[in-house]
Amino acid sequence: MKKTKKHLNKGSRERPDENYFPGANELLEQAFSITSKVSVSRRGIPPIKVIRRLNALKIQTFGEFLQKKLTDLAKLFPHLERLDPFYLDLIGILANTPRLKTNLSNVSASARIIKRLRFVYAHNCYTAISISEANSALNAYQGRVSSVMKKLGPVLKELKVDSKAMRELPAIDFDAPTVVLAGYPNVGKTTLLKRLTGASAKISPYAFTTKQINTGYFEHKYRRIQVLDTPGLLDRTELNAVEKKALAAIQHLATLIVFIIDPTLACGYTLQEQLSLLSHTKERFAGRKIIVAVNKVDYATEQELDAATDPLKDYTVAKDSELEGMQGQKVREEIAKAL
């Protein structure tokens, strides 16, 4: 059975609390606090050996704590090279992707430096010929590691912001065929989403904009079909730079477009405006099949229906009837045929 991909932030092992992202100074304070509690047996052991063991253990504790914390923080982020293009485009909206890669690389490199220095100074402790030399090894290690962490401070601040934004990315099923709803506001996209998917529709913040993405699923002949509604992206012709990038991400997902038209014009947009947006949508999703769902047919006059459907001879058209209890059935049937 093919394994379904999950949200990009799922699956990491021993992940820390995603809402907690400490800075460099806080991590150092924690490391010093934990190290101060380290002790070893002193009974019957020469003082020099006690200090060697104690300081070597403190070096190990101090270093391993910071190594693990840095590794855990890095796990809050996905491997960018393995991401689906959908997520890569969204991350590109969040931040400068090369900067993000560099910051993550710096965190990993710092963890490696801390580990390498740990072995060096622990060895110096074990081979120290005096108590002062063993103490110097501990102090030198903590000093060098503190310097590494302080240099990492600005990096961790940037990553904290990036991590918070990435937790808001929508969870997408990449194995399911994806239907994207389009059309002007108030034509009935949200209503159609609920009719198609029932109570499974979920609203998530989308791509570091003020937009949201509404997701839902329905089953057809044991096949799971994903439906997306993206308010503010596919309901007008003009988009700003950030919205264009968010739209590019959606273009990676779309298997099929369902464009909704309101023939009654109650949505506040003329038929010509709606047809113009349909043309723009066709250009944006070149090569994707488009189904036009004529909504609110119960309330439309015969003349309004004719005016809406006559220009659609090149499209598959599904008329959705609310009063007859169709509840999106015609649209669902056409989607199943197209997929």
From TrEMBL:
The keyword Nucleotide-binding applies. GO terms for molecular function: GTP binding. It holds the Pfam family MMR_HSR1. Residues 177-339 form the OBG-type G domain. Keywords: Nucleotide-binding. InterPro entries: G_OBG (IPR031167), GTP-bd (IPR006073), NOG1_N (IPR041623), P-loop_NTPase (IPR027417), Small_GTP-bd (IPR005225). This is GTP-binding protein. It comes from Candidatus Iainarchaeum sp.
